[in-house]
Amino acid sequence: MPAKIRLQRHGRKGYAYYHIVIADSRAPRDGKFIERIGSYNPNTNPATIDLKFERALYWLNVGAQPTDTTRNILSAEGVLMKKHLLEGVKKGSFDTDEAEKRFEAWKLSKESKVSKTKEQLAAEKASNAKARLAAEVEVNKAKAAELAKKKADVIAAAAEAEAAANAPAEVAAEAPAEAAE
Predict the structure, then answer these.
(1) Confidence of residue 33 (pLDDT cuts 50, 70, 90)
(2) Same domain? 103 vs 43
(3) Does residue 136 belong to any structural domain of this protein?
(4) Directed axis angle between helix 53-62 and helix 79-91, to 10°?
(5) What is the CATH number of the domain that holds 29?
(6) Residues 110 and 157 placed together within one structural domain of the fold
(7) What percent of the chain clears pLDDT 70, i.e. is strictly above it?
(8) Do 69 and 98 share a structural domain?
(9) Which pTM was predicted?
(10) Parent domain of 39
(11) I want to staple 22 with a disulfide (CB 3.0 to 4.6 A). Which of 34, 86, 134, 181 is the partner?
């Protein structure tokens, strides 16, 4: 039975996440599988990968063939690196302790790159939020100035109307006074 390590789609339309499964290559994509070894969510930034490392390594050693995408996932998680190092141990190139040292060094460098990327994304998000806040403050200042101008115009118009109302009364008061003279 030719086994494949592949993705099984779940989720709604336009928002898929995947289970990483071991399945018979003749089984349908979302059909029967032998074992579920993890999940992959490409919707997060960076993508979230949850993998049973030892089981993935076991299935690779047994002969299961990963698809292109799962090969990239396994490579990113270090399963293929570990398999490569274990094959070097089998050939006698170096011992198990040296393989573990090399793998841990690779894992540390990988984790530092991922944490650096996450920090960079968080900083970028914070700077975008600051920029949006500054733009909103500017818009609010412009609206407040416009509102103050409108209020000043309304007060000026009311003062003019009051002055105009008082002026005809004064003119009318002056006219009878002039007629009396």
Answers:
(1) very high
(2) no
(3) yes
(4) 50
(5) 3.30.1320.10
(6) yes
(7) 92
(8) no
(9) 0.67
(10) 3-73
(11) 34
Q: How many CA atoms lie within 13 A of 126 on its CB side?
A: 6
Kindly report the backbone phi and psi dihedral angles of residue 128, in degrees, each rounded to the nearest multiple of 5, phi listed first.
-65, -40
Residue 79 burial class via C-beta count within 10 angstroms: exposed 0-12, middle 13-18, buried 19 and up: buried
* Helices assigned H by DSSP within 34-95: 53-62, 68-77, 79-91
What is the count of structural domains for the chain? Answer: 2
Average pLDDT of the residues in 173-179: 60
Question: Where residue 181 falls among pLDDT bands split at 50, 70, 90?
Answer: low
Claim to verify: residue 53 and residue 109 sit in the same structural domain: no
Return the SS3 of 14. coil
Q: In this structure, are 50 and 110 located in the same domain?
A: no
| Residue matched to tokens 């841990």 | 104
Segment 58-79 mean pLDDT: 94
Residue linked to tokens 């650096």: 116
Evaluate whether 78 touches 105 at the Cβ level (below 8 Å): no
